[in-house]
Amino acid sequence: MWGVGGQGVLPALLLPPGLCAGFNIDVEHPRVFRGPPESQFGYRVLQWGGDGDRGLLVGAPWDGDGQGDVYKCGVGPQNSSCAKANLGDTAPWLRGSAGHLGMTLVGSKDGGFVACAPLWSQECGTSVFSSGRCVRLDEELRLVETVAPTAQRCSTYMDIVLVLDGSNSIYPWEEVQEFLGNILGRFFIGPGQTQVGVLQYGEEVVQEWALGQHPTAQALLEAARNLTRQEGRETRTAMAIRQACAESFSAERGGRSGAARLLLVVTDGESHDGEELPAALAECEKRNITRYAIAVLGHYLRRQQDPEDFIREIKFIASDPDEKYFFNVTDEAALNDIVDALGDRIFSLEGTREDNESAFELEMSQIGFSIHLLEDGILFGMVGAYDWEGGVLEESRRGRIIPPREAFQGEFPLKLKNHAAYLGYSVSSLRLPGGQRLLVAGAPRFQHKGKVLLFQLDPAGTVTVTQTLMGEQIGSYFGSEVLALDLEGDGATDLLLVAAPTYLGGQSREAGKVYLYRVGQRDPCPHPCPHTIPLSLRSRRIVRVSVGVSVEPGAISVTRRNCQRGGSGAVCLRARICFRAGTRSRSPGDMDIDLRYNVSLEERVPGSRAAFDSGSRRLLQRRIELPLGRQSCIRVPFHVLDTSDYLRPLGLTLSWALDESAGPVLDEASPTSLRKLIPFFKDCGEDDECVADLVLRASADIAGSRQSPHVLRKGRRRMLVRVELENQEENAYNASLWLRLSGNLHFSSLVLQDPGAAKILLGAFPIPEHSQTPEETPRIPPNPGR
Q1: Strand order of the sheet with strand 82-84?
Q2: Torsions phi, psi of 625, nearest 5?
Q3: Do 122 and 183 reside in the same domain of the chain?
Q4: Domain final residue, candidates 659, 681, 703
Q5: Are residues 199 and 320 in the same domain?
């Protein structure tokens, strides 16, 4: 991988968390600054100042129900309080949206700061666009300027003037008032959106209210309800249109520069000054005013007159084409039937194209989600631009440079356009040894693994990608943070750090990972490159410990005792534990590490089947000095006691750790425990399948049968039952023998006449009268034997 002019950015080291130590950082006496917990105080922290005047700038993006704010905290000999900037007082736009100011903070070269509210949103009709905004602050946190490079005027940024016919022929007037209230209810009234003025005319023209005179929808509707008819015997439509276009859209009457201008004419008859219509409409054309015209035919239909000439005149008033800008209704009441259609024609649906294709460009850019100071300006990340593919924006001495959607198509193909790569989630820049600058942007959701782009941007918005870095694990968010470091202070970037905070490490733990890339030189070693990075921070050696455990004999015999422990026969075994320690350092030198280890038998299991020959019965705690690169082994003897629980293997657990107060540390991906299961030997031949053949013989010292039972008479107080159980094949595990007595006999005792090598457990249990099978009664499992 090579960059421009043969300069490369090459992988050098993967740095797991927790393996670096700052030798000069005081961790014993921390300074603590506290803010409102619900404000997410401390989401972003920036250090400022030098000797004698130092402090922290702290972002609190959830302050004020999501408005966000910034705190300035002084750092002195004692814990000091933090002063809130209260930027909502100097930047009123903050109070109108949950923009989360303080999610991003950077210092500027003039001693001030830049803070961003990337989620700042504005309502545009039925949509809410999160374009984001930033503020420049001086060293005292006073507002210098608002920075909103992607802010756009809403498509509903309109000045609309309604021209209403109030002559005597309009009847009933209440229907006109209802129409006026309904159509005003379809308009999006507010700052940055629509404002409405009304003219009423007959023989004269009256400006009922000017643009912006009623700034809220509620005020407009109240004015509409109180509007009375002017009356008049003539309908001077041309005069009203000329006055509306020439005067009502002027700045003196509340008109706004850049707003779309719409004229809506409602009349029920031909004008008495029709010859002046061409000149009046020319005034409208000169001022780029779009005209909607509505013909109310009620007066003609009630008098059974032909409205053809009237309709022709109203179509002449309306802009072309007629099918879009001309309406006619049968009477005044029918005006309310066209409210929805008229509203839909005036306000098209924002943010969409045909065939349900998204058309979002910069409306959802969330500018300032990430920012980076350049030598002569600012690089902004636009994570939400272009349907969340993302993008970047440079504002510098070269001007405002916004790469178009197509600029990154080579890296984000159209077939993946709906995958939301989030380019611009992080931004930075690096300087190559030759002085050339490359911009850096992360896209942590690209193909779910993440991607980082290194590129150049020219003033025309053309992007030249010089290198890409790909994440290696799904969901790791590779590229969510990037940082360029100049370690030697020569102005050239030495390292590029790329974070993957949700990278899954050993044992599926979300440990995170930081990738370090060398900048500006060819890599002399094969990939991957096991370099140690010459940082000025003290680091501890990373050690990986491999462990092996073996046990002799490999299984526990149930019947064969090979030793005596505590005066009883037992099965003796010996565990062999071998340790080997290694390091990834190329020159570790002669070094021993101090390893603590624990060996336990049957951990977390009640009862005791086994014990160590020395020390604690079930837990040994030891230490061992391990030379790096060489194997060291120990032997641990233990024995198994007489037990009837031979189906469950015996567990031997080994755990180990290093002394982390000093010296090396274990590799985070290295295991720290091992469990060895030792089975019991069943002694059932080569197939390890036990096939038993049990033979039962029983007799009593009295004669009798079911047909002719023996009756015990006075003088005979007990009877004897002799039972012989013989196994003629392989071991029978869990064999049970049940003797059922009639209810008039009382159990007295059990006597084992032929004690064998196998242990036999004897016991007596009452059998409920309703029981029909021995399986319903408690059992005592004897060992195999005769």
Answers
A1: 44-50, 53-60, 69-74, 82-84
A2: -90, 120
A3: no
A4: 681
A5: yes
Helix (H, G, I), strand (E, B) or coil at 65: coil
Q: Which positions ≥6 away from 103 have C-beta within 8 Å?
A: 43, 44, 59, 61, 68, 116, 117, 118, 119, 368, 369
- The C-alpha atoms of residue 423 and residue 450 are separated, in whole angstroms, by 10
The pair of structure tokens assigned to 309 is 């000439």
Distance, CA of 577 to CA of 552 (rounded, Å): 12
Q: Which residues pair with 652 in a beta bridge?
A: 601, 676
Instruction: Tell me: pLDDT of 773 over 80.
Output: no
* Residue 483 · residue 497 · CB < 8 Å: yes
Pull the structure tokens for residue 582.
Answer: 């290694």
Start-to-end CA distance of the chain, whole Å, equals: 77
Residue 536 lies in a domain: no
CATH number at residue 590: 2.60.40.1460
The overall average pLDDT reported for the chain is 81
Q: Which of 646, 679, 609 is nearest to 758 (CA)?
A: 646
Q: Which two tokens stand for residue 545?
A: 């410990």
Give the closest residue to 620 by CA, choosing from 638, 606, 607, 604. Answer: 638
| Residue appearing with tokens 């005027």 | 153
Q: Which residues pair with 89 in a beta bridge?
A: none
> Residue 87's closest CA among 67, 105, 111?
67
Residue 642 lies in a domain: yes
Closest CA to 104 of 373, 449, 361: 373
Note the pLDDT tens digit of each residue in 472-499. Answer: 899 999 999 999 998 888 888 989 999 9
Q: What is the rounded CA–CA span in Å between residue 348 and residue 338?
A: 16
490 within a domain of the structure (yes/no): yes
Domains in the chain, number: 4
Model pTM score: 0.56
Question: Which tokens go with 447?
Answer: 């193909």
Say how far apart CA 700 and CA 221 lie, in whole Å.
110
* pLDDT above 90 (res 658): no
Judgement on whether residues 560 and 471 belong to the same structural domain of the protein:
no
Could you give the C-alpha distances from 97 to 5, 43, 145, 362, 364, in angstroms and in order?
A: 47, 19, 18, 18, 14
Same domain, 189 and 137: no
pLDDT score, position 578:
95
Secondary structure of residue 19 in the 3-state scheme: coil
Residue 245 is classified by DSSP as I
Nearest to 165 by CA among 208, 196, 195: 208
Cis, bond preceding 321 (omega within 30 deg of 0): yes
Domain ranges, residue 320: 158-346
Is position 367 within any domain?
A: yes
β-sheet with 391-396: strand ranges across: 367-373, 377-382, 391-396, 399-401
**172: cis peptide before it, omega within 30°?**
yes
- Nearest to 558, CA basis, from 685, 653, 676, 679: 679
Which residue, of 681, 701, 729, is where some domain finishes?
Answer: 681
Same-domain status, 692 and 640: no
pLDDT tens across 390-417, in order?
A: 999 998 888 889 999 888 888 887 776 5
Dist CA 495 CA 516 (whole Å): 6
* Helix, strand or coil, per DSSP, at residue 74: strand
Instruction: Report the C-alpha gap between 501 and 483 in whole angstroms.
Output: 14
Among the listed residues 282, 263, 254, the one whose alpha carbon sits nearest the alpha carbon of residue 161: 263
419 DSSP 8-state letter: G
DSSP annotation of 279:
H
**Could you tell me if residue 87 is left (phi over 0), alpha (psi between -120 and 50 degrees) or otherwise beta?**
alpha
Classify residue 498 by burial, with Cβ atoms within 10 Å: 0-12, 13-18, 19+: buried
Please, which residues have CB within 8 angstroms of residue 674's CB and are 6 or more apart in sequence?
547, 549, 653, 654, 655
Q: What angle do CA 464, 469, 474 make, to 5 degrees?
A: 130
- Upper half-sphere CA count for residue 721 (Cβ side, 13 Å): 13
Q: How far is CA 316 from CA 270, 281, 294, 375, 779, in A?
A: 12, 9, 11, 59, 105
